[in-house]
Amino acid sequence: MIEDPHPRPADVIVADSTLAVPFAVLVGDADRGLTVTADADGTWEIAVEELHTARPPYASTAAFGKIVEAVRNSFADFVDAVAPWRTSATPAAELAAYVLWSATVNPAGLVARPAVLMSKHWMDKVWSWDHCFNALALAPGCPDLALDQFHLPFDHQGESGALPDSVTHSEVLHNFVKPPVHGWAFAHLRRRLTAPASRAELAEAYDRLERWTDFWLTARRAPGAALPHYEHGNDSGWDNATTFDPERVVVTADLAAFLFLQLCELADLATNLDRPDEARRWLRVAEETRAALLDQLRAVHGAAERAYAHPGAAGGASTGESAEGVSLRCRQ
């Protein structure tokens, strides 16, 4: 795993070359670099180290070729674990595995678990719904890493039950949330893991999903409303969706459907944990949510059915008029 790619001091150590000359050491937009002159045989070698403050001088523990071989073998083991089914007809599988492998970072700062970042470039964070899809991809071959991905944002769950928008080693942002895909994701995760989740693991997931669900049922339902609402497009994960063109605060079919699936998963977990009263309660709320979804956000045009969105009853959005829009969100 690589270190967290956020900017930190770096040392460039000349391991095997004649001369290394820095140039343009100015700050700001100036180019910065290092000119290395090779040995007489044409070879050169440098090591680039990332460090927090300082560390002892670098000393290589193996020849460069051995280091390359070790890294190559590490990736080969990873891709064999997560995509053993790949063939010459699935060339993208190895590339996708490389994205996961290369973006996996060690625990540091506020990130207490190994984390798969969304990118090694500027999207070097964990957002509170993308992590679910990484967990599902990793589950069959790297079950422990998969469970770490699922739980990482829950490590920073707020008092209200809300998950943060994103997490990095140095900050946890609560300016937005993400949709409640987590019940659906955990149901699939349980089926994809190579060994059944333990009772303790089920209980931990249940408690976290319960608080997350209560957030949507309380903080994100207007008084008297049967369905929850998004307060901003960023809450939906589809930041620029046209669903949010008429109003910022909206009740949408996808949100209601995600919540319904999460309620069903809670009911199933409660059954597995021998909590029959709680299972019945979740199923009742799930059925109420499903009925409201079909009653309020479905319209029939001839033989075609389409899901609609309408403004929420909060944040000044009070027209109550439904709008189909052109967003794929209305067709999920």
Characterise the protein shown here.
The chain has helices at 64-82, 91-102, 130-138, 143-151, 182-192, 199-218, 233-236, 253-272, 276-296, and strands at residues 10-16, 19-23, 33-37, 45-50, 104-105, 115-116, 126-127, 166-167, 172-173, 250-251, 298-301, 304-307, 310-311. It has nine helices and 13 strands. The strands form six sheets. The chain has a three-stranded antiparallel β-sheet, with no helix packed on it. A two-stranded antiparallel ribbon has the order 1-4. It has a two-stranded antiparallel sheet with strand order 2-3. The chain has 332 residues and is of the alpha+beta class. Among the domains are: 1-61, no CATH class; 220-332, no CATH class. The protein is elongated and about 80 Å long. Helix 6 (199-218) runs antiparallel to helix 8. A hairpin with a 2-residue loop joins strand 11 (298-301) and strand 12 (304-307).
* Main pleated-sheet profile: 3 strands, antiparallel
- Tell me the radius of gyration: 25 Å
Which H/E pattern describes the elements? EEEEHHEEEHHEEHHHEHHEEE
Strand content: 5-15%
Going by helix content, strand content and strand pairing, the class is alpha+beta
How far the N terminus sits from the C terminus, by CA atoms, comes to 36 Å
Poorly predicted parts: 1-5, 314-320
Residue share in helix:
25-40%
Task: Lay out the secondary structure.
Elements: E1 10-16, E2 19-23, E3 33-37, E4 45-50, H1 64-82, H2 91-102, E5 104-105, E6 115-116, E7 126-127, H3 130-138, H4 143-151, E8 166-167, E9 172-173, H5 182-192, H6 199-218, H7 233-236, E10 250-251, H8 253-272, H9 276-296, E11 298-301, E12 304-307, E13 310-311
